[in-house]
Amino acid sequence: MDRQSLQADGMIGPNALTQFRSPLEKRGGQDLFETLLQDARIASLPDMSGLIPEGPVARFHKTMRATLPDLSAEISRAAGVGTADYVLKHRIPGLAQTLLQVLPASVSKHLLANAISKNAWTFAGSGHFEIAGLTPLIFILKDNPLIAGEHAGRPICHWHVAVFERLFQELIGSHVRVTETDCGACGADACRFEFNI
User: Fold this and answer.
1) How is the chain split into domains, by residue range?
2) Distance, CA of 29 to CA of 5 (rounded, Å)
3) Which pLDDT score is estimated for 19?
4) Which top-rank group of organisms is this from (predicted)?
5) Overall pTM > 0.90
6) Pick from 196, 188, 169: which is nearest to 80 by CA?
7) What is the rounded average pLDDT for all residues in the chain?
8) Burial class of residue 38 (count of CB atoms within 10 Å of its CB; 0-12, 13-18, 19+)
9) CA 151, CA 114: separation in Å to the nearest integer?
10) Shortest CA distance to 191 belongs to which of 118, 125, 115, 138?
C-alpha cells in the first residue's frame, strides 16, 4: 500500500497507542491502562508489525485526556519519548544515526526533517504534514486526527512534541527544544511545532 493510500485510509503507527502502556502503568498500575483501553473500545494491543487504524488510537488519546486531565500532558510526553526511543532502536540504522550526530547541526536538521517528512503518516495518520520553515525549523500538521473534535485553551499535542524533541535531541543535540506554538484544538488551522536548535 502506498503512502497516499495509507493516509486516505487513516492508518497510523502503533507506537501512538502502545507507548502509553508504561507511563500509565507507572502512574496507576495495569488496571488504569486496561480501563482506558476498554473505555476507548480497544480489545487488544497491536502486534507492532504494521500500521493500525487511527480511529481507535484517537479515541484512546481523547479518553486519556478526559479521564486524566491533570496527568495527560506528562503521560503523553513520556509516551512520545518512548516512541522516539523505539524509532531510534528499530527504524533508523546506526550508521545513519552516527552520521547525523557528527555532521554540523545546520546540515543534520535538514536531513532529519526530510526523513521525518517522508515517514510522516506514521505519526500524522490522515493528517497533512509539511515542513513550513528551516530557520527556524517549523513542522505543520493539518487535520491532526489525534485531536480531532477537541477544544482546549492551550496546545495539547504533547505526544508529538516529545517524539520530535527526543529524536532531535538524540541525533542533533541535547539542547534542542520543540514548542507547539499553535494547535488545532485551540482553534488554529493547524498544529505548528517550532524548533529551537
Assistant:
1) 3-196
2) 38
3) 97
4) Bacteria
5) yes
6) 169
7) 94
8) exposed
9) 31
10) 138
